[in-house]
Amino acid sequence: MNRRDFVRDSLLTAGSAFLAHCNLAATASPSRGQVPGSIAPSEINTARFPEGFLWGMASAAYQVEGAWAEDGKGESNWDRFSHTVGKVKGGATGDVSCDQYHRFNEDIAILKRLNQKSYRFSTSWARIQPTGTGSVNQRGIDHYSRLADALLEAGIRPFCTIYHWDLPQALEDRGGWPNRDVAGYYADFAGILAKHLGDRITTWAPFNMPWTFTYYGYGIGVFPPGRASFDQFLKAAHTVNLAQAEAFRAIKAASSRATVGSAYGMAPAYPKTNSEADRAAAARYHAMNNLYFLNTAIYGEYPKAFVGEPPYEAMGYKSGDEKIMRVPLDWLGFHYYTRRIVSDARGSSQSVTSGHFGTETEAEGGSRDPFTQIHVEVPAEGPLTEAGLEIWPRGMYDLVMQISREYNHPIIEISENGCCYLDTPDDSGRVPDNRRTAFHREHLAELARAIADGANVRAYHAWSLVDNFEWSDGYSQRYGLTYVDFRNQRRTVKDSGLWYGRVAAANHLNV
Ligand code: FCB
In this predicted structure, what is the pLDDT of residue 360? Predict the structure, then answer.
């Protein structure tokens, strides 16, 4: 089951969700006639951002680079997966994608034209170390070095996500993330990057959405390597927790100017009813899906994601790991796309026939995961994007305030926020994607409200600079603020991109 199927199944039952006012209190209710979850124009017009706010855009190596076998690059797990028949919609691959490997100057020119101050990209491990360990492929380093230089020259901060889901296949063949040794190999890789690029790149996030690639890859098998076992997920996630901290230390050792944060995927969890059981279930969801790699870093311990004690044995946890995992992240980056409605799955026969039992999704026809006992729905109270995700701008405010409160007002970066719409160029060559503009405008207004209420937010990254390879959905989804014609690689900045460029220049939304 891919992410879209999960969403579709969830929508069947979600309409009736009752939002209880507890941990995540529903904020100002929409006025009569207003679209549920939407933001009034007055809030948009008065939204303010701090001076020096970092307006940015994001991408990821496998999704945009192409050049999959050039200049000494090794095979990655996503190369292998997309080359396997039946794994990606339409048989799509990232072999060429947006060809950013060769066209990064053109893409940086777009960023500059749109007054961007931060570009979040990721590195391909197999370009730097083709088999994941051992000697360094200088041509890979040279590529990211040129990219960093070009960004700096354009006045744009290079924000490097070290790992956005593409593992050297040679390491997958050695067991992948459930193999604890991969934590050490990963830290070596991170140290190599910091050593060669740390004089110019100072903003590092070890992992993009660690929960997603460990769960989707090893827990339910819809991402490479396609394994479906809850134990494998637990082991993979534990290795990643160790790797995150080992990388933090390796980066700091190699570069005194480095700051290390994160790029977690998060979704605010609203309990389905006001019952204690549902509220506790929503808290378990929050712990499992939002905090599983954050709490371990800050406190050296797993958050309360499980009914009962964490299954340490299944995780492969060793005594002393609490010390290894703990590192003082310099800032927190997380994405917001949509919210979840969560209820307690224990003891009930669950008459609902859709949505998902367990951590988030389950293998086809799978049983409940015995550890979290939650039932998760993606609601449809607000309008939906063309990827089927509910648009709920108020979730941005709720999530930012919750993390701010729970982690003592850290520096926050929104590492991704965006939406899929399939608008194409019209006869005049423009891409009038007004729904995307509205999406970003309302989410930004809610972010500004969180800032006004005390959250220390310094950056926002729209996903994405260009339309690109959307994982198992191939090219069937478009998230870009720039349209890409994949037949000839022609880029057209969409109306939303032009609008976002004006916002970045003005530092407010009233443009
Ligand atoms: C996020 C991923 C990103 C992209 C967007 C749409 O979950 O980090 O790579 O797929 O969703």
Answer: 54
- Ligand 1 centroid to residue 99 C-alpha, Å: 18
| Side-chain-facing half-sphere of 188: CA atoms under 13 Å | 13
Best CA proximity match to 392, nearest among 403, 375, 378, 372: 378
Residue partners of 47: CB distance under 8 A and separation at least 6: 444, 445, 448, 449, 508, 509, 510
State the pLDDT at residue 20: 36
Q: Is the CB of 479 under 6 A from ligand 1?
A: yes
213 lines ligand 1 (CB under 6 A): no
Mean pLDDT of the chain: 92
In the predicted model, residues of the chain with pLDDT beneath 70 are 1-33, 347-368
| Cα(89) to centroid(ligand 1), Å | 16
Q: Is 125 in the pocket of ligand 1 (CB under 6 A)?
A: no
Q: Residue 23: its pLDDT value, please?
A: 54
Quote the ligand 1 centre to 75 CA distance (angstroms): 21
pLDDT for res 359: 59
Residue 382, ligand 1, Cβ within 6 A? no
Would you say 27 and 397 are in contact if contact means Cβ atoms under 8 Å apart? Answer: yes
Residue closest by Cα to atom 4 of ligand 1: 470
Other Cβ atoms less than 10 A from the Cβ of 25: the count is 11
Over residues 375-421, the pLDDT tens digits come to 888 899 999 999 999 999 999 999 999 999 999 999 999 999 999 99
- Cα(250)–Cα(77) distance, integer angstroms: 24
The alpha carbon torsion through 190, 192, 194, 199 (nearest 10 deg) reads -170
**C-beta of 266 in contact with ligand 1 (< 6 A):** no
Q: How far apart are CA 255 and CA 197, in angstroms?
A: 9
What the block records as the tokens of 370 is 């015995």
Residue 31: per-residue pLDDT: 53
pLDDT value at position 368? 58
Does ligand 1 come within 6 angstroms of the Cβ of 215? no
Query: Given this model, what pLDDT does residue 370 score?
Result: 74
C-beta 263 within 6 A of ligand 1: no
Report the residue among 163, 212, 471, 473 best suited for mutation to probe ligand 1: largest number of ligand atoms under 8 A from its CB: 471
Binding site membership of 463 for ligand 1 (Cβ less than 6 Å): yes
Question: Does ligand 1 come within 6 angstroms of the Cβ of 480?
Answer: no
How far is ligand 1, taken at its centre, from the CA of residue 265, in Å?
A: 9
Q: Exposed/middle/buried for 458, CB within 10 Å: 0-12, 13-18, 19+?
A: middle
The predicted structure's pLDDT at residue 378 = 85
Tokens 């019209």 belong to residue:
426
pTM: 0.94
Please report how the helices 138-153 and 181-197 are oriented relative to each other, as an axis angle in degrees rounded to 10.
50
Q: Beta-strand (E) ranges in 386-471?
A: 411-417, 456-463
> Is the beta carbon of 126 within 6 A of some atom in ligand 1?
no
**Sole residue written with tokens 């354009």:** 154
